[in-house]
Amino acid sequence: MQTRTLGTGGPQVTPLALGCAGMSDRTAPADEADAIATIHAALAAGVTLLDTADFYGMGHNEDLIRRALHDRDREKVLLSVKFGGLRSPDGAFVGIEGRPAHVKNALAYSLRRLGTDHVDIYRPSRLAPDTPIEDTIGAISELVQAGYVRHIGLSEVGPETIRRAHAVHPICDVQIEYSLFSRGPEINGIVDTCRELGIGVTAYGVLAHGLLTGTYRQSAGGDPRAHWLPRFHPDNLAANLTLVDRLRPLADAHGISVAQLATAWVIAQSRERGTIVAVLGARRPHRVDEALAAVDVTLTDADLGAIDEAIPADAVAGTRYAAPLMALLDSERGPKSPAST
């Protein structure tokens, strides 16, 4: 696959990255043999960037990646690691931490679990409410100087926070949910800010938690995710699946699936919006093969216009998370006006 630079001075990456969160999900963990085979399939296909976090499975995901990479050339793999999500023994999230001491302590444990002497991109998973972003990024910058971290990233933050962080140390990329069903990064000015500053975007949730696979069907019993993902609520789901159906003839015209079309749309945004990498969440090798086909899809301007017409940015029913979770996202606060800064 062709590579692109992730941010000014950042690493060379392929248009597709592998998100490993689902391999350690506490409610339905993947078969470990399948998970490791999936990582190997992605690397064999040329994917270079693996995304993880120290709180995915409370360390399980990092251990899994270490086992998958034990016989691989470490310098050919880019590890992107998030930190700051605090969890209780029952797996519940109980807060966000960004103090400098925590930053360094968290990395020490991640390096041990991953079996490596450095991570390629290190990022806070969310904006910590009680710690200035300058303090958090300053601590990571010290780790860069010490050689434990190669590049610094951000996750789910808005334009003002991006600028403040970038002023402390160059930011490689911002990880954000971005898909045909989640156009907030365009509306809130996040994508434009990243392009202006030479920062890449790693887009997760490109298939909208399964809605954009083209195979999801509404069940009579309802989806248990509906209480924290409003787009799966019965009041919204039928309308959203109708939007997905609008993509089918466009996908058929290219001989690809709806999922591949949705992934190709995200990758195509790099033409005008700077470097954007689609993060694939996969737990089995064949999912990697399916997603890779999207990399080779060329969407014309006419194709992109037809997709936008099929799914306008404001057409999706329901917010991407329930209100209490949305309130925690700095990325959802939008750009501030000059009068409010």
From TrEMBL:
GO cellular component terms, semicolon-separated: cytoplasm
- Which segments of the protein form a coiled coil according to its record? none
Asked if the Swiss-Prot or TrEMBL record annotates the protein with the keyword Protease, the reply is no
Q: Which Pfam families match?
A: Aldo_ket_red (PF00248)
Single GO molecular function? oxidoreductase activity
| Keywords annotated in UniProt | Oxidoreductase
- PANTHER family under this entry? AFLATOXIN B1 ALDEHYDE REDUCTASE, ALDO-KETO REDUCTASE YAKC [NADP(+)]
The name of this protein is Aldo/keto reductase
